[in-house]
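Hey, I'm writing a tutorial for new members on how sequence and structure tokens pair up, and I'd like a real worked example in the thread rather than a made-up one. If someone can provide the structure for the chain below, I'll link this post from the tutorial.
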Amino acid sequence: MKVMLVNGSPHSEGCTHTALQEVAKALTADGIEIKNFWIGIRPISSCLSCGCCSSEGRCAIDDIVNVFVEEAKDCDAFVFGAPVHFASANGAMISFMDRAFYSGKKVLEYKPAAAVVSCRRGGASATFDELNKYFTIRNMPVVSSQYWNQVHGNTPEEVMQDLEGMQTMRTLGHNMAWILKCIEAGKVAGIERPVPELQIKTNFVR
């Protein structure tokens, strides 16, 4: 079983990375393999709504999003981490998530996911809500912790002083491992994932 930790921060080893690595420690202790994935610092375009991914199975903009979707095929669960910018997830992460969750729908469905947020002071809960909406539109079980998945600090060193935040990350990792093992046990017992109905779309303006 493998969990991908997605770092949406422009800093490869900053506060978001520090939080994700605390999750990783718990996952590793529980025998779960981890894969670190950084979205990088190159500009990430927002979705162009061109519809190409519906037929091609990959985004028409060939960048880090397509790399993620390809590598996600071998992963069983995901933790998406983002810093707070102006009480919201940073712009690059939102563009990444929009396109990854549209073009990578078949790769992500029914795999557990969680969000991790780092901030200096405010905006963590709003960003946490924002990221969770991606999971709940893709049939992904959302893994929780003992508190909302957030850490506070302006530097990695300060984040590590947020003892409650660090504990929340470890609990999240252990909970993720537990969910994955439960899913695996279910497969062994012959329990299949739900068969989706054909999607119904209702337009309110006719």
